[in-house]
Design goal:
mainly alpha, 0% strand, Cyt_P450_sf, 81 residues
């Protein structure tokens, strides 16, 4: 358990190589072993750079109409059932 910002920095930045997270098997099964979520260090950094642009505010703003349309379609299908 981490109880201070300094401890969090120690674990997440300064000594990240010393701490390997463990995840429930169902999370790995759901996301796949190659998901960015499970990578560490340089591999994580490289993958993060590849997908970063898709999560920038402008990119998110551009997909809002698609998300709204999918949500409306889903709600409409529930009402039909």
């Amino acid at each position: 358990m981490i109880s201070s910002p300094e401890a969090a920095k120690f674990v997440l930045v300064t000594r990240d190589h010393m701490f390997k997270p463990t995840f429930p098997a169902n999370k790995e099964k759901m996301l796949g072993k190659q998901a960015i979520f499970f990578h560490q260090g340089d591999d994580h950094t490289k993958l993060r750079k590849l997908v970063l642009r898709a999560f920038m505010p402008e990119a998110i703003k551009n997909i809002i109409p698609d998300i709204e349309s999918l949500a409306k379609d889903s709600i409409q299908s529930w009402e039909e059932d």
